[in-house]
Amino acid sequence: MAFVLRRPFAVSSALRQIPKAANNARFIHNAPFKPSSSASTKPLGSAGPSSIFAKSRQTFQNAFRRTYMQPSYGVAQGGNTTQRLLYGAAIVGGTVLATNFIFNRETREDGGMPAYERSYLNETFMHTGLGIGIIGIAARALHMNGWSYRLMASNPWLVAGLGLVASIGTMYGTLYTSPDNYVLKYGLWAGFNLTQAALLSPLMFMHPALLARAGLYTVGMMGSIAFVGATAKQEKYLYLGGPLLAGVTIVALSGLAPLVVPATAARTLMWSERIWLYGGLAVFGGFTLYDVQKVLYHARMSQRGLMRRDPVNESISLELDFINIFIRMVQILGMRSQNRK
Questions:
Q1: Is residue 90 part of a domain?
Q2: Of 104, 128, 140, 211, most Cβ neighbours within 10 A?
Q3: Domain range spanning residue 112?
Q4: 193-221 tens-digit pLDDT
């Protein structure tokens, strides 16, 4: 049930904000559009595919409230590259040390992670990285072939409905397929990743530098939290399942607020978006901690013969955590970049 609740909030972050002409609930903080002179001088009926593509791109970027318009690179910006890399490395390293100090003051009492747990966890991380790589490469390829434009121009409710059916169907097909059926299981798992890539391909409208930074921060955040979960006591954080399920429900309701709250309630919409962004980061960071501990728990169960060893199933949870955190990182970085202008 947790998967059903968590999936829509990852893939729908881009699609649920596609506006209609009369629906500007998501644009209460936007500056009004300034129509270009070239568009106004075109005769009626002369709009071609290029104008539709340009409008789709602008629509998607404004769905994030504040777009990320990177200035052209020059010598002045290039000189700060090393400084920014060192700054990012310091943030990631400091996060690892801080989270380990705060959460793992009590060390494991079993002498460290056993070999079978370490092997199971490594296989899970390998499948997680492979799945995220498939999603990124496939999303880029679909975007270059014009899929993002067609997705943005289609009915958002139809896209969201079909996307959820395909996503949940392939996910549960993967979860309930025996690992002995190697070909079918990996085929469904590849279909699950391709479905996520198709739904997330409009993110390629954003600036590549923003996507790279969001990816780096997501890896740093999830890596530090996974380190805490892997080195903590056995089953220390498994109690978080219930509270996290309640938290993801609140985040989901805040994400649906623009559908029911009028556009004039600007303060309410502002707070609902903050809950969706920053509350979502906290919730899915907690899910990362919970999922890593659950992987180790399943490793012990499989070692006792109580369940099948299946790192593919374990990787799906971590992939969903990564996607949810990454999308929020993209939106937060885009908003902050626009605020600095």
A1: yes
A2: 128
A3: 2-7+85-339
A4: 999 999 998 888 888 889 999 999 999 99
